[in-house]
């Protein structure tokens, strides 16, 4: 029987430092945007020197890549985990939409970096690789729900607009520092209900008559 190797203290310390760096970067980005993130600011926030940060990430772009890559990996894993065990195509479709909503609400800065920021070419490639399995599942579900594969692209375009619109405005409304949140106060549960109602209406609108 093979024994599982226990990580030594040095390895554990390095992993904790790496996680602290990523957390600090996201905290700074939430307040100042990604352009406001610097290695020096990250180091100051975690009480280390800049060279320590460079031991874990080559530069700011490398850090961005790791954050986005891990974000897409988590989103994919959470999506397939949530869909597993669901019965009908409608239930599976709703589960996919639910995962995206809660991922956006719980990780607003990371979600923005993944989907709403100006994406460099490498990130577009990462997005395509990470989302292809989810989109293949969505394609199949849309065909099963609608019975109209020839209209699949129209339906998916509408779905993407619906999800991106709701997640974008939900995060703005929940961010108390934005003007929008002051003019349109709303809570998480209320916004979630509006979102799920909209998704259910969309499913109903494309369902076989």
UniProtKB/TrEMBL annotation:
It holds the Pfam family TetR_N. InterPro entries: Homeodomain-like_sf, HTH-type_Tx_Regulator, HTH_TetR. Residues 38-57 bind DNA. Residues 15-75 form the HTH tetR-type domain. It comes from the Bacteria. The keyword DNA-binding applies. Keywords: DNA-binding. GO terms for molecular function: DNA binding. PROSITE patterns: HTH_TETR_2. Gene3D superfamilies: Tetracycline Repressor, domain 2. The keyword Transmembrane helix does not apply. This is TetR/AcrR family transcriptional regulator.
